[in-house]
Write a structure and sequence with these properties.
mainly alpha; Tetracycline Repressor, domain 2; elongated; Homeodomain-like_sf; HTH-type_Tx_Regulator; TetR; DNA-binding; TetR/AcrR family transcriptional regulator
Length: 213
C-alpha cells in the first residue's frame, strides 16, 4: 500500500479537527500535536492557516467538480441532476466546517475568498448549461429567462447554506438525510413539462433510493 504523504495526512487530520471544533477552535499547533509531529514540520508544508485552507479548498473543489461533470452516458439530464445534488449533499457533511463557517472564512482569508468567487462563477456556468439541457430535452418550461436564473440562484443558496440553516432554524422538522435533495427538487417540480414529470416519476419508481441516498 502506498505511503500517505505528510501533506495529505495534515489535510486529513485538519479536516477532521475543523469538522469537530470549527475553524476558530483549531490552530496549526493543535493539528501538529494531534499528528505527533513538530509545529515546524507542519509549518514547512503549510506556512499559514490560509495556506492550509487553500489546499483543503482545492481538494473540495476537485471533489465537487466530479459531481457536476462525471456522468454516465446512458442517463437522462434529470437523473444526472439528481445524482449531482445527492452527491453535493454528501459533500456538505464531509466538509462540514467549511460550509458552516463559509462567511467567516470568506471574510478572514482573502485568497480563499478569491477562489470561492471563481468557483461560484464556474458553478453558475455549469448550472446554466445543465438547465439548457433540460430545455433541449423538453423536461422543463419557464415563463422567461429571469425565472430560470432565479431558480438556479435559489438552488445555489440552498446548497451553500444547507448546514447553516440546520443549525440556525433548528425547530423545523426537515432535517433528515435527503432533505436538501428534496428541497432542491421542489424548486423545479412546478416547471416540469409532462415529459419532465414522466422522467421524474421514472426516477422515483425505478430507483427510489436515488431520491434519498
Amino acid at each position: 500500500m502506498a505511503k500517505i504523504k505528510t501533506k495529505d495526512k495534515i489535510l486529513s487530520v485538519a479536516i477532521r479537527m475543523f469538522n469537530e471544533s470549527g475553524i476558530q477552535g483549531v490552530t496549526s499547533r493543535h493539528i501538529a500535536a494531534e499528528m505527533g509531529i513538530s509545529h515546524g514540520n507542519l509549518d514547512y508544508h503549510y506556512h499559514t492557516k490560509e495556506d492550509l485552507l487553500l489546499a483543503i479548498y482545492d481538494k473540495m473543489r476537485a471533489e465537487a467538480s466530479e459531481a457536476y461533470t462525471i456522468r454516465e452516458s446512458n442517463i437522462s439530464s434529470l437523473m444526472h441532476f439528481q445524482r449531482m445534488v445527492a452527491g453535493l449533499e454528501e459533500f456538505q457533511y464531509r466538509y462540514r466546517f467549511f460550509n458552516l463557517d463559509v462567511l467567516e472564512i470568506s471574510r478572514s482569508f482573502p485568497e480563499v475568498n478569491k477562489k470561492i468567487q471563481e468557483t461560484l462563477i464556474l458553478r453558475k456556468q455549469q448550472a446554466q448549461q445543465l438547465f439548457e439541457e433540460f430545455l433541449k430535452d423538453g423536461y422543463v418550461s419557464f415563463p422567461d429567462e429571469d425565472v430560470m436564473e432565479r431558480i438556479q440562484h435559489t438552488i445555489r443558496i440552498v446548497i451553500t447554506f444547507w448546514l447553516s440553516q440546520l443549525e440556525v432554524i433548528s425547530p423545523y422538522k426537515f432535517r433528515q438525510k435527503g432533505e436538501m435533495v428534496r428541497l432542491v427538487w421542489n424548486t423545479i417540480l412546478p416547471y416540469l413539462t409532462p415529459a419532465g414529470k414522466e422522467e421524474y416519476d421514472r426516477i422515483q419508481e425505478s430507483a427510489p433510493s436515488e431520491l434519498t441516498n
